[in-house]
């Protein structure tokens, strides 16, 4: 669980940096420049430490640089605010692959209820698309406080709630099936 939150923080670090600096300084150019530099530094740091970098890491860096450049050229923060939506759409698309979630589950779950895990994977994909669409709607308003609330509370809370519901449902189903198998 700790690893999941660390990965989420890492994935959204440039957006977090952008938001903090923009809220403190009200300077789009400074916030965008520091966010771009932070994203580049994050990749360099990972490479120096010898960490394996995924496609998503490079895609995130590319988005920060491209959207950051557009933000700098237009002096409009909405482009940087839209970055998490693109990430959510990309992740949702990856989650449409049948059975993607099986490798993240403990053996007891994958052996007992693989069909539930596959269904949960599709539900997660739908959630990512929904959060991405919401992010674009909120980003288009240009209201940073609303965007910060949406990204941190609504989007983050939806993921935590979905994780909790998934955990409870899978635990109940696995327990039920194991009891039924023991009786038989």
Automatic annotation (TrEMBL):
One of its GO terms (cellular component) is plasma membrane. The keyword Plastid does not apply. Keywords: Cell membrane, Membrane, Transmembrane, Transmembrane helix. InterPro entries: YciB. This is Intracellular septation protein. Pfam families: IspA. It comes from Bradyrhizobium cosmicum. Signal peptide: none annotated. The chain crosses the membrane at residues 12-41, 53-73, 79-96, 116-141, 147-170. PANTHER family: INNER MEMBRANE-SPANNING PROTEIN YCIB, INTRACELLULAR SEPTATION PROTEIN A-RELATED.
């Amino acid at each position: 669980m700790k690893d999941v939150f660390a990965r989420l923080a890492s994935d959204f670090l440039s957006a977090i940096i952008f938001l903090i600096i923009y809220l403190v300084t009200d300077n789009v150019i400074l916030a965008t420049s520091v966010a771009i530099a932070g994203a580049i530094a994050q990749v360099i740091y990972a490479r120096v430490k010898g960490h394996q970098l995924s496609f998503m890491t490079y895609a995130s860096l590319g988005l920060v640089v491209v959207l950051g450049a557009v933000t700098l050229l237009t002096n409009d923060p909405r482009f940087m605010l839209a970055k998490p939506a693109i990430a959510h759409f990309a992740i949702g698309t990856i989650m449409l692959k049948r059975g993607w979630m099986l490798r993240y589950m403990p053996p007891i779950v994958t052996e007992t209820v693989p069909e539930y895990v596959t269904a949960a994977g599709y539900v997660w994909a739908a959630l990512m698309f929904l959060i991405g669409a919401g992010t674009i709607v909120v980003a288009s308003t240009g209201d940073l406080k609303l965007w910060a609330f949406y990204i941190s509370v609504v989007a983050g809370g939806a993921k935590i709630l979905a994780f909790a519901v998934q955990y409870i449902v899978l635990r109940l189903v696995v327990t039920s099936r194991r009891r039924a198998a023991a009786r038989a």
